[in-house]
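Structure tokens please, single chain.
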Amino acid sequence: MKKLISFLCLVAIQIAVIFHVSAQSSAKAVNGDAQIDLSGNWSFQIDSLDQGVKQQWYNRKLKEEIKLPGSMTTNGKGDDITVNTPWTGSIEDSTWFRDPQFAKYRVPGQVKVPFWLQPDKYYKGAAWYQKTVNIPASWQNKHVELYIERSHWETTVWVDGKPAGMQNSLATAHVFDISGLLKTGRHQITVRVDNRVKDFNVGQNSHSISDHTQSNWNGMVGRLLLSAKPSISISDVQLYPDIKAKQVVARISVNNMTGKAANVSFKLLASTDRPDAEKLKEVSVTRLVEKNATVEIAYPMGNQPLLWSEFTPDTYSMQVNISSKQTAADRQEVTFGMREFSTNGTQFSINGQPTFLRGSLECAEFPKTGYPPTDLDSWMRIFKICKSYGLNHLRFHSWCPPDAAFEAADRMGFYLHIECSSWANQGATIGDGKPLDKYIYEESRRIVKAYGNHPSFCMMDYGNEPAGKNMVKYLTDFVTYWKKRDPRRLYTTGSGWPIVDEANYNSTPLPRIQQWGQGLKSIINGEAPRSDYDWADIIKKWQHPTVSHEIGQWCVYPDFKEISQYDGVLKAKNFEIFKDQLEENGMGSLAEDFLQASGKLQVLCYKADIEAALRTPGFGGFQLLGLYDFPGQGTALVGVLNPFWRDKGYVTGKEYSEFCNSVVPLVRLPKMVYLNNEHLIAPVEIAQFGASVLNDVVPAWDIRNENGDVLFQGKLDKTNIKFGNGIKLGEINVALSTIERPSRLSITVHVADHQNSWDIFVYPAALPATDQQIVVTQTLNEKAVETLANGGKVLLTLKKGSLKADKGGDIAIGFSSIFWNTAWTKQQPPVTLGILCDPKNPALKEFPTQAYSNWQWWDGMAHSNAIKLDAVSKDIKPIVRVIDDWVTARPLGLVFECKVGKGKLIVSGIDLLSGEEKRPEARQLLYSLKSYMNTEAFAPKEDINIEKITSLYN
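Here you go.
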């Protein structure tokens, strides 16, 4: 008996082992399909010499093991990072490869790159994945498919050594018909994945493939399964809502494998989760189906169908059932929405109501895994955060997300702009007869077939910023093709350009406050601050809506606290380099201050950009670059959120959404700095794209001082506010004569539940006299030197351009923060991130300021050079500091004090004298510094040799 029991146990163990190796031996029925889940352990082998096909690896057992869904990197597979790693993506900041400054980051085993987030391992080439499965007898004579939800990227499949085909979509599932290759029993499925750039070069910087963003990973993620369908089955369902006719037209594609024509019964029933919604009736029809057929059925949606929009994200589920006498029944459930995303003149509309796109880019940044999530919760979190910052729109830059992103956007009421996996530039072109031309049509058809029913899928173009001598004709034809083929969404050529009459809308970078390469000649850096400009003159020549392309691009200092958050496959080695540089320059303790101060300036710049778009009558919308950071292209820290969609501590969603929302009060201020003998006169407007007309509202405004005390207030006429922008509400008109002291004031406009605020600065028109014994000079002339020698006081205010290049004269500063970054813009100015100061410093008592740049610093930044403090002394603690680019992290100052012999000196990199009569900020700052110099608080500690000071300037 004991021997028998032992024998039976051994048999049971062997059976268990067989079933483990064979994956799932029983099929699971879902939506009319039987499915075998292929997730789990797979055999694996790297094919670095590209010999696998020649050596027929599909006929042998692979040597290693890997876990899927996943990538080689998530499984620790691949090569260590070296200076020879064959990255995918342009590297503009190539000095890393040769500059002695980076030598320690090129040491084998300790390599750190500044170009993008760095993976733990890297591999580019072919890799092989293999799984043994057991096919049940119930699958006999069924239509069997291998489903790979997302692969990166090209897959070639063999079943028991027999080829099953190749697929190369970057945007949709790879689905292989393997019906003729499977019978009951055990089978070996082999998949070769190749992540090298193909002959249809989509562009090495495309976010669908590039190391700049998600990383050029190799693997398979999302749902991995085999499915068996009846021999007569549904292959596709496309639903076309018509809100005017109150119906949806279903186009149902049927696959008939029986070899005979069959009468097929179709039953359709739409339903929704809304308990108060009208109950809809089932529709039944019968059609004769040959080998393959598409059947069109109009389905009535009742008397009052629920309409999908950002305010009412109501969706329906359409259940499609087919049956015939020859085979088992099949069914599919498809989510759709009753909506019409269209245009009305130069603006967009949703279900006939005007809407304004408030968008950002999604650039495929997923540091935990290096590839996009395919689960609903991850995408719901992203869209909830976007909504909390006032957005209603997301553009997927040169890539297309998985189905879960569309489902989440459906539920949240988000308008999605999808691109066909390409950025044909920097080594690639479109429209020149290359294989990419054909691939874009194939990819776009796959995208629309896979995701076209989602109501959130509202816009599409080929991809980002194209190049090619024939691109205009090609992209015009592309738009024409899709407008005719599928009217469920709007189409344009490419994001950024070109503009053609045939497009439904324009995408152009022209309407924004800083153009690429514009430097210090832009609106924000070249003109005194104001909030009364718009883009009406730019868009007046176009007849359809305009979306401003990639507005913002305003940088912030790295958040070194963020480094610890990178606990996945991508690491912030770039941040480690920048942190080292800051510490080597003796400013490690200022990292958090730099982050917060530059962050406040960043928000101010974004507010200016967004409000300019909202002020423009008839404008279509904007797409930010971006709401969150872009870690590639040399590190572009352009987000108020980090790549994990977490805020950095200097602005909340609630604060941001005051100036970025469906309803935003606006004030057209002709300037931001006033004298107290002036009137403040400013028109009040509103951009109103909310859920409904605002009836019987009484707009109100107030002006408060820094303590929150109301100095002025008023109400505007009661009104009903319809949809649109450029809607005039009235005017603020106040005399500033009661403002006796230099002040920072805050103007707030309230409309219903919405408010928005602006800081202005008011200075006395007449200033008291100061001690005439203070020598104010632009050079240390004989009088100044003598004054210092005798123990006197000197204020040296350097003329702009007089600072020597090696002392800081070659550092281009302006008011705004850095645009994109200095590496990819080739040092486009400004190369700094605003100022940092102590607002309580007595030297600034008469020049009200926060710790960071606000509009009153525009004049100073426009008339100054940043002084390299280590050219004077490494111990200098400036009164006003300039925050340098994180790559160089130089200690820079605008204003500092020191002892020179017996005397006391303030050095200002701001020219406070030239044109002073037209520069109230310069006049006030000069007065503040002189007033400070007349107090006992003026007691500088650092003793500097006078030659150090005179060596600063020409």
